[in-house]
Amino acid sequence: MRSTLSAIRFLFTAxxxxxxxxxxxxxxWSGDWWVQWPALGLGIAWVVSLLRVGRAIVVAxxxxxxxxxxxxxx
Length: 74
Known about the structure:
Blueprint: H1 2-27, H2 36-73
Helix pairs in contact: 1-2
């Protein structure tokens, strides 16, 4: 449960971190677009977090469907 909540929080904080890094890159522009490497790492971590949250949603939906089926049998 805690890891799922962390994954949900990361889905919102990662784009903010990336936006901050882009601003820093633009403010310190020396001709290099170095922010692409942190963006790659954050993007990979973001997709993994999205999959973790998606898995939790599927499991919760399956449990809700099972509970509905069992409730209808009575």
